[in-house]
């Protein structure tokens, strides 16, 4: 990855494991002496489940040490509290903002203006990316956002452009512009997670086109859950059934003749799968983006699996 990348937005079709990849990336970026913030914006507490910890509050909390010895912090953004932060930051409402919360005005506002929620979420993430400590250095060396799915991510990230157009002047206009400057800058990259299957790959291609049209920086395509290669002939049709039965018999298997048919069926399915995967790899290569593959975790995405994926990402140069 280019060294100036500081905000990593991770998206992907549902079921591709984008939250797992985002968590692994946060770990991978936590090299010695570095600090990474992993942000969840969908309210699912998926990060807490992956790191086997209690539900995350609306505060930045250290949850792990990276393979390189750095620190990983996590934040689950609460829309209501983010709005209170916004009101205090730009309008100094203080107690008045809390009063709005008590009468339900905040829920009402985010319901009638769904885009407001996305403004708050992206604004909070960009604030964390830009934040500096008393020494003038960035508080976080990298921020990783577990973003909405591919079909919604461009609208989610671009909502501040719409807000800036609507509010021509004032703090809302300036805040929206500031967020878009971060999201469209060289320090941001939107990574898309996919599987070697037709629908996720097509959605990835569509997502890349939408992001490029919106002038949002596309980073890397991450192919997740890649099955290990299986040795053997590519075309089971070329296998001699009698030789296969003899080989099974010599291996000590009973009734080898009855096993030949099911084994060849499995081989045919595997050959078809390999052919389909090769076609999907070609589709992804045509996008003109870096493509990185992560293995299927046989034991599921537990904490040990996250560290395995993080090490693989570091081997890929993240």
UniProtKB/TrEMBL annotation:
The keyword tRNA processing does not apply. Keywords: ATP-binding, Nucleotide-binding. The keyword ATP-binding applies. Residues 8-181 form the ArsA/GET3 Anion-transporting ATPase-like domain. One of its GO terms (molecular function) is ATP binding. It comes from the Bacteria. It holds the Pfam family ArsA_ATPase. This is Arsenite efflux ATP-binding protein ArsA.
